[in-house]
Amino acid sequence: MNHTTTAPVARPGTKAGQSNEFTLICGIKPGGAERMRKLLAGGFDGERQKNTDRIGTVHDLRFVIFDNDTRVIFASTFDGSWESYIDDFATIIPDEIDLLFHECTGYPGIHSPGIKDWIVSQQVTAVGFYSAYPDASVREVWKALRTQKAFDDLLDSAAS
Amino acid sequence: MDTKTDTSTFARDAVALDVSDIQATVLRPRPSPYRGEYVVLRIDDAVQGREMLRRIIPHVATANDWWEPTLPGWLGIAFTYQGLRALGVPQASLDSFPPEFREGMAARAFAINDLGGNAPSNWEYPFGTTDMHVALAIYARDDQSLELVLDRARQSHNDLPEVPVIYRMKFSELPGGRNPFGFKDGLHNPHVEGSGAPAHPGFGPSIKAGEFILGYPDELGETATSPQPDVLRRNGTFLAFRKFHTRVAAFREYLIEHASSAEEQELIAAKMVGRWRSGAPLVLSPEQDDATLGADAERNDIFSYANDMQGLKCPFSAHIRRVNPRDALSNDVAAVNLHHFLRRGTNYGPALPEGVVEDDGEERGGVFLFVGAHLRRQFEFVQSQWMTDGNFIGHAEEQDPIVGNAEGDGIFTIPKRPVRRRLHGLPQFVAVRGGEYCFMPGLRALRWLAGMDVENGEPNPLNRS
Lengths: 160, 465
Description:
The complex is a heterodimer. By secondary structure, chain A is α+β, with helices and mostly antiparallel strands.
C-alpha cells in the first residue's frame, strides 16, 4: 500500500509540556519605539489586563526594545496553539492584536490573509526553554489559586 | 435532525445560492430512514477516469430539487488530492488547494490528535494511502432504490479496467434514528443563509453560505480564492470523512460499574452526551429524559447555555457542548461562528441488543461526514481544540467523553453542588477506522474535471484525450 509521504509544515517555537514559547524579533517603524513606550507606559492594568486575561492561555508577555530603538523582542509563553486561535483573536480582539504589532515593520494587519505567514517569518525558535510547571495551563493555575484561597479562608474561619 | 423535509415552509424566493450547481449532499438532509453505500474508486488511467466521470455526471444529484423528494435516492461524488492528480488536473491547480487538503487526513494526524490506537497506521485500507481517489456516496430510502442507484453508478466504470472499485461500505439507519450507543443524534445543523431550506428551529442565526460552499462570502466577509481556476472552485466544498468503530459493550459496562441504579446509569450517559437518549437536551430537561421533547423537532434544539454557565445541567465536557458550544464561550476569546460545519453522518452495522454487555465482535459504528469550506478552522479546530483538548473549558486533561481518545485514561467532570463528581478511567468508546479529506465539486466543476467544455470557461486543459 502506498502511504502518503507529504511531510507536514513545521512551525517554529519550542514546547515544554503543553506550554509553548513564542518569540518574535521585529524591526520597528521610524518613531515607533517612542510610540510603543508611550502606549505601554500604563502597563497591563484595567481594560488591557481584562482583555488579555480573556484570552485565558497567555502566561506572560514582554516587549523589549533594543538596537537603538530599531528592533523589538516580543516574548511570551502560552498554552496550546496560537495558530488555531488566530482567526478567533482577529474576530474578537482585533484591536489588542493590532496594538501589539502595529509598530513592527511589515506588519500586514490582523485581518490580512498573510498574517500567519508574517508572524512565522518574524518568529525565532528559542534554543532553551524552561517552565517550572510545564503541564499547568493558565486556567489551571488560576483555578488552583482560587482553590487555595478558598481553602485558606476555610482554615482561617475554622480556627477563629 | 428530523429529516422529513417540510415542504410547506420551503421558501423558493429565499434561494440565493446556485442550488442547481451544488451537490445534494452539501445542503440536503439524508432521507429517513436511509440506507446507502460508500464506494471508493482508484484511477489508474486519467483518460478512463474522465470517461467514468462523463458517464456518472448525469446521475449526480443536485440540491435544487431537495423539496421534491421524488428521487429514489441520490449520488454524491468527491475527490481526494490524489484523485484529482490521477485525473490529470494541472499542477498549478493542484498547488492552489489548501495545504491540509493536499497533505490528506493521515498526514494531519499530529494536528488532529489521531494518536495511539487512532493513528493512521491502524486504519483500514485504503484510508491513509495514496490509492484512495474518488468517493461515491449513495443514499436511498430502501434497498430496491439503493440497488437502482448503485447500478447506475456501476455502469459508469464496470467496463473500465483502469478504474477499479477498491472499497465498499454499506450503511443504514438504526431503529428510531438512534446511534449505536442508543442516542438519537444528528439533531443539530447550522442553517445556511440563502439555501432556502426551512430554518430548523434551533439556537443561533443563519450562517453565511461561504462557510460551507465556495464562491460566497463567509463569516469573515471573505470569498474563497482557492482552489484555482474559478470553474473548479465555484459551488464546491470540502469533506472530512471519518469512519468510527463504536465499543457499545464497553460503554454499557462502564455505566454499570459507575452507577448504583439504572436511573443513575442513564444520567451519567446523558451527562456525557449532553442529551438524553430521546434527544431531549439536558439544559431543557436536567433531571430525567423527556421523550416528548426529544421527539419534537420544533423544540429539541432550541436552547442556550446562558442559564447553565456553571455546567450544572449540561457539563462543560459533554459531547454536544464541546462540539457546538453555542453561547457557552461568550466570556472567552472564541468566535464560535467560525467553527460551524454541516454534518451528514450515517451509521453502519447492527445494533447491539439491549442489555448485552459483552462485545459480540461485530463491526458497528458511524461515519462522521463533515461538510465545510475551511478544513483547518472548522474540522481541524474543533477536533484538536474542542474534542481532544479541554483547556478551553478549564479541564485541560479532559477530552470528549464519547469520541475522545485518552487511551483508557479518560477523565470526565460532572459539575454538581456541593461537590463535583469526577469519573476516571474512561475507556476509548470510539476508535477511528480511517478517514480522508475530499473535495466535493459543483456540477459545472465536475464537467470541467471530465474534460468537457464548460460555458464561459477558458479552453479546458483536461480536454486532451
